[in-house]
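Incident log, structure service

09:12 report received: a user says their structure output differs between two submissions of the same chain.
09:20 pulled the input from the user's history:
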Amino acid sequence: EVQLQASGGGVVQSGGSLRLACTGSGFDFSSSFMSWARRAPGKGLELVSSINSAGTNANYLSSVRGRFTISRDNSNKTLYLQMNSLIPEDTAVYYCVVDKRRGPGTQVTVSS
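09:34 re-ran on a clean worker, output below:
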């Protein structure tokens, strides 16, 4: 059974930083393309960033490029999202995703 557990969310002021982490089990983590997605209040699910299995290639939503960095530690089966210069528009529940599956998210709230 695929299990994904995201953590690291919280409340932060505009301009602040958070680091999200997601541990995965029940699948071949080191061979899996993985992503972070988010759902803001009243909006649909939005792909934020993706990374290949080796961690050598990443893609970003245009609105987060230059502020967010995705990375992974395959030895510890953990996916990360470093979020800097946060703005209120980043407020959302963040999910890690593998093969269109996502686990419980972690809430990020950015106050102005």
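09:41 both user submissions now match this output. Likely a transient worker issue. Closing.
09:42 reviewer note: The longest strand covers residues 18-25. The chain has a mean pLDDT of 97.
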